[in-house]
Amino acid sequence: MTNSTNSNPVSIEKENISGLKFPETDVLTTSEEIKNRFAELDRALKLGNLEHNKIKITFKDSEGVKQVNTTVWGVTDKRVILKQGVVIPIHRILEVNV
Fold this sequence. Notes:
Blueprint: E1 10-11, H1 31-51, E2 55-60, E3 65-70, E4 72-75, E5 79-82, E6 87-89, E7 93-97
């Protein structure tokens, strides 16, 4: 999944995600992009649970574009769950690099 708006994301540790603020609007605009995002998250979940592979998630909080290198532990219809209960709202995810 690629998106031209995610140039130069700021790297962040997963432990710092809890303190971020996430607007309610979706960062993706087309149904195709949203469908692809769910497919990539499903793939990341499988890789995380089966092989403990880390992936890069690029997302946008209220301040700008950030990126975390982490293992996906769970995916709900609204959130991605990382280790230690850290969550990222799915509607704020720009890209998942498996």
